[in-house]
Fold this protein.
Amino acid sequence: GGGGGGGGCEWVELATSGPAVKRAHHSGGVVSDATLLIFSGQDETLITRRTLSSLDLRTATWSSVPLPTDTPPHPSPRIDGAAAAVRGVGLVVFGGVGEDFGFVPPADAWLLRGGEDVRPPRRLALPSKAQAAGGAG
């Protein structure tokens, strides 16, 4: 039955510091050993923002992370997307709902690689743009 034992788990409130951004409907994952990255989401005015924030889980300190580029190609701002942190590879962001409240196309998937997040550095077997669009490549 549902004895609620929790299997040895417990919730611990983090007393964080630093410039945390208010976000809802964001996505993220833990990269490197103890860094939580949060991508995009809605701010307190319900505007979808393309931002990247990090929480150092060792020090419980938030910081804003400069995005690699402000000019395309880059992932579009989104809400309700998904993200997966892959050890030694980076943070994969995909899916969700765009600024126009339409679904983000399935081919709009992105990999955020960073020096500390990728150990050892390696190349991925990524499809060409033609293959991703369904053409021969």
Notes: The beta strands are 27-31, 35-39, 52-56, 61-64, 82-86, 90-94, 110-112. The longest helix spans residues 129-132.
